[in-house]
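Inputs:
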Amino acid sequence: MIIACNKQLDKTDPSHPTLETYFKNSSELLGGTNAIYSIFHSAALVGREWFFLHDLRSDDVNSGGGQLEVPRAQMLNGATTTDNAVMNNVWNGLYTVIHRSNTVIDNGPNVTDNTELRDRCVGEAKFFRGWAYFELVSLWGPVPVYTTQVTAPDKFQPRKAEAEVYTQIITDLTEAITMLPATTKDQGRATKGAAQAMLARVQMQKGDYAAAKTALQAVISSGLYSLMPNYSYNFDEEHEFNTESIFEAVFFDRGDNNFNWGYTGDDQPSAQPQSTVRNQEYSPIAWRNLIPSNRYLNEFEFQNGTTIPKTDPRYAFSVYQTGDKYFNNTLTLTDAAQNGNASVVNGVTKKVSWRKFMLIYKDNNTFHPGGINQRIIRYADVLLMMAECEAELGSAASVVTGYLNQIRDRADVAMPHYPTAKYPCNSKAELIKAIMHERTVELGDEEVRNRDILRWRKKGYFTTDPLPYFRANRDELLPIPQAEIDNNPDLGAGGINKQNPGY
Amino acid sequence: MLFYRVMRLGLLPLILINCLTGIIYAKPTSGQEVLDRKINLVADQKPVKSVLGEISKLADIKFVYSVQKIPANKKVSLTAHDQRLGAVLDELLQPLEINYHVSGDQIVLTQKAERQGNLLPLHIDADKMIPEAYVVKPITGKITDESGAPLGGVSIQIKGTNRGTASDANGSFSISADPGETLEFTMIGYKTHSIKVGSETSLSIRMEPDVALLEQVVVVGYGTQKRSTLTGAIASVNSKTIAELPVASVEQALQGRVSGLTVTNNGSPGTSALVRIRGISSISFASDPLYVIDGFPTGNLSNFDTRDIEAVEVLKDASAAAIYGSRATNGVIIISTKKGKRDGNLKVFLDSYVGTQSPWKKIDLLNTDQYLKYERALNGAANIALPPRLESANFNQPIYQGANQTFAQTNTDWQDAYFKSGMITQHNLAVSGGNEKSRFYSSAGYFKQDGIAEGVNYERGNFRINSDHNISKLFTFGQSLYFSYSNQRYDNTSGNRTRLVNVVRSMPYLPVYDPTTIGGFRGAENSFDGADPTNPIEDAILLGDAHNKTFKLFGTTYLEVNFTPWLKFRSTFGVDYANLYQHQFQPIYDDKGRNSAVAKITDLRNNTTTKLYTQQLTFDKTFGKHHLNAVAVFETQGQKYYQENAAGTQNSNDIETFDGAGNVSFKSIKAENFLVSYIGRLNYEFAEKYLLSAAIRRDGLSIWAPGKKYASFPSASVGWKIDREPFMKGIPAISELKLRAGYGETGLDAVNAFYGVTTGGVYYPWQVAVYAGGATYPFSNSNTTGNGSYYNTLANPNLEWEKTKQINVGLDLGLLDNRITLTAEYFRRKTDNLILKVPTPGSFGFNGVGSYQNAASMENKGFEFQAGYNKTKGDFTWNVTGNMAFIRNKVLKMNTPNATIDDGADQDFGAGAITRTAAGHPIQSYYGYIVEGIFQTDEEVQKSPVQNPGTDPAKSTAKGDLKFKDINGDGKITDADRTYLGSYIPDFTYALNLGANYKNFDLSVFFQGVQGNKIFNAARVITEGMARLFNSGTAVMDAWTPTNTNTDVPRAVSGDPNQNVRPSTRWIENGSYLRLKNVILGYNIPGTRLKSLTRGAISSFRVYVSSQNLVTFTGYKGWDPEIGSKNTTLTNGVDYGQYPAARSFQVGLQVGF
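Outputs:
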């Protein structure tokens, strides 16, 4: 009887496989890889907090009004505390990407049934690990680096110097480039081009423009990418996975208003594809939590009869303002429909809201998380980065403006070529001014401005800092989350302070 | 000793002449003394009865005689001058052939010729004149129990004699007794009732349950024990107390009844209350006690009918509870269900009530005019434009097309719309009976409770059949079977934005209903109204169509082999089967603010089966002064469950099934566990004076890692009955005095802690579960589901039971035949290996989710007192019992010296963590800033510490803002300036119960209270926090302005730049309350009248009226001070706007047939 009972005590989980038995073949490894994408598009990251964090750290946005929740307002005003929820979610989300990537990378060598698929999976995992560490190092500076799965509660890692983190990122992305295919059957998977463009961003942020240029050239030379004739195709639901898009986060509109507020990317228990709440947060007729900043709005070239012959069409493609048509051009936007603050554009006070990635061009629901894919890197950015690299490397002005003018030549933009009266492009400084302008109007609200500011501030390109609250030696970086400090006793073991300066 | 042989006496129709009505016989008198009294009397041709009447007046005596035997109307003449009564009687009676005999203060007259073969020894005076005289006085009567039901088997004995009888199944009895003798009614479990025989020939006796219960038999787990020989801390609650309150659950019925047992109501009808015995014992897991029903350990009691309960025992200390070993740390509540009586009669009993309940308090909210003022104050201060709705062009529009009322004219009281009064009713019909061979108890019950708010209610139906059969001298067979179904419409709101939060937030100018919308409700339009509360009435009625339907079968069966009177073996098999079906349907709707173009169906099924096998050998024998009881048990309990989750959408509100549904997702979880136990216990008594008990249980549980599956749980206790010592003989006032001490080790119920349903199916914390297909990414925009696999935790193969060591010292004192009783207990319990989910750093990639480790240590210690007084004699009887408990909780150690667990952070409620658990402080102490006051001048702001560092001080802090205390003195208010702000744990809890009976009336008054606890009134963050625009409480009208400076409400400014809402002393309130929990006034229709009215069909009939929560004394500002825990174990006492306790009124009746 006793022996029989002891046998009955030997039970394992009948609902789930265990780690000892899983991730052993290519199909299981593919599942592990897809789970990285899942957390990547979760509310902790691209589905919500990631775009908030980048926008709030930039000068692209203003508060829409009193609705902005406390941690977001904190970040927008430079008062981010160490327990800021937006920041914590992004931190945890990025490290979850790393953990899931490590799972694939660790298990890859043991998978032998389909080495081609295995290598692609490992390549995607390295792409994401590189991306996540790039986000981390550019937002928090020195961060703990884990390159294998954590197997015991005491396997803590200390903060590593920024240079070491960059080395890890460049290694990962470089390896990813060799392992990833140029094109994939599944739309939305990381490709060689995505890894190359990402590597370029990393190298530029690190200050290695030559290396960045090499990576960008590879993207351009691949011949796979081109600009869309319509600027708006980069932000709508009908032209996802177009040739301008190099990497995007895929969202799926299930028709209902459910949103995965669980933040993990794992819609337990039902594992449904996920929508994005961006439409909800910024839409002129929804919460309108963040609106375009006056600085951004007034960066556009407005026709003035003298120096500026044409108003930049991208203004109207990027924002909605009172009087604009929406819902398949059947409704007209009123002041009353837009809750909250007004803006001053070109001397006129009016209510302006974001248009990029908003669903109301075809949907008049006031609450409806949508399925528009978030473009992470598009070809226009590659061309603009190339322009910046050439300028920084001292190439001829025409080389730089050549890239810039490709952007301005987009069919429905068709802005006059550089040099212009306002942007003469005679010197490196003038070229940089043009690049800064062009990046701002082309890429506004696309979560690149935060890092542009960081890069250009270091170079001294701003006469007044774009962030009104900016304090040197503090606001370059976010504070390390208190929860990390509290629960990682080895955080400062590498000789770097546990907390960033100024916090 | 019961007298089953009923002694019937010749029933003579007797008339008692009592000429001295109202005289109480102050002292016993002897017959000779009576007869020596001198009287003066002259009678001329008067009837005998008149003469006797005259004599009785003069001599202060009574005559007793039969009119059939005594010629009462015969006329006689008599003259006596200062003559002895004896001589006068001789003169009067001898010619009439009448004998007389003095008995007490009565003189009994009998015919000389009478010869009665009655056998009762007589209590005869030394009156030699009538040597053969005797008295026969048959008294009949009826005995009922406390509820008015007939009580059979009551022993009736004439005090000081060996004459006696017993009541039959109808509670009727008949006995012959001399006037002046005392009848004693005794029955186990009831207080002895005494009555002196006087003039009555018919008695109606109501037996009162014995609260002191000194010889009561107590169920102690795997056996019973006499209460007087207990050595552990065990409290009993009887069926009357359990059934007294009109509540759905046993837990609620236990509130305030046992010292050291706290019960906190925690939600709408059908939601389990929080039950804690001696405080919180675990940081990570719920501290629910183990419930054992008729020997079967089970998880909860939510579907149990309180009317079926015979008794509840609460095993408080480890020496008592450790017999349940690995599951007993939080105490054990043992429930015994009713059984039939072996008195050969069928009893039918109906217990029924109906009542109404409503909220007892509302909070003042802004009306439309006040809202308009408040909006400008709040948004104006932050330079935010008027929401479009409030612009006059819009505000004077009809509330919907066709309505003849504008927004400006609308003034919705959302509390009135949300709260309502609701019905509560319960019926229970019980049939029971039995004889020497078999007995049974069978019942049917129904309970229904409406909510006091829209959208919640609960209904239950149940049946029971219990039976026992003595098959032969050797074998006994028995079974119990319980079936119940329940249907709970519950509040399906997720998160802390409760319906009450939205009741507060909803704008008064908006209507609740709008006939022009799909669904018929009206919601706020965020962009237009400038705020986005959801319509709480719509949430409750239209979107809250969510039900928990439970089907439960619970039964045990046993076979007992009685080898010898002192050795028996019992084999028990039991099954607990529960099927939960949860169904939610949310229709297509569009309230102008929110909408859904599809209808949503969400289903959950949870099927749990638990099987129990118990093999038990019991030895029980007395050798001279030694009494030995030994128990050996082998037991296994295995549980299996299966859960299915399904969700999908429909394009029509008419189809509530998955037929053709879209977006269908499905998932199921399966898990099982197995517990094997070996138990031994020894109880030894010497001379009923020295008591010793020792037990050990060894449990093996499947969910631990190999090598960690088994653990042992020993216990021992001793008792000394001091009242039995010779030196106590001289103190008769002390009827009982017992000293007890015990020690035991117990474990935390790991099965419930790691219950897979609540942990997403993770049942085996030593293994890492991979969620294969648990994640999804829609490559190519395809609606794939489950193409991703991941894991998100660390396993710990070294994990083991939380083990608690507890000592208990107790004292039982009984005074004046236990009319006064007192029990006092001291305990100290300490757990050294508490399981913590030690937070992993976010950088581990588990989203901060911790890993389980046996890492912390916590202590609870306290005192408990229970005292009672019973007056059992006379027409007016009453009793009072009170209890009080003091508990102190302290976390002694965490995984690291400075480790903390913060909980309760919520953007809507001040953003920061509300509680902190850290070494040296009570578990989940409130944590936050200290408010020092309100800045009255700009100068004061400037010279004070920076309130919100990191922001532009000029923009963030202004006069009218709160000034927070700079605890570390660094000139700025940071996280480091937070401190401990008190605990939800009361200084003490107490209860007082008063019971009284006067003739046929009974009254029960029950007070219950807690003192010295703190509540974090998070709901006030909503009613007066003013962080951003919503409707609010009227407190915001008192916000600081330059002209209204004498206030404790800071300035109104949208965005709250100074973070005045941060968790601080501002939201901490005293949670003390004293509540008149229950008042009952009952009336029993007297048995004789009842019999004549109903021709015997009804044997007892009681009607009563009662009220719960009639009066609450509290300074707490929220809806109700009884705050449970909405989320985890670490947010107890945080009031997010929880469902308040109701005030209710009932009328009920209890009828015996």
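Remarks. The two ends of chain A are 64 Å apart (CA to CA). Residues 115-140 of chain A form the longest helix (26 residues).
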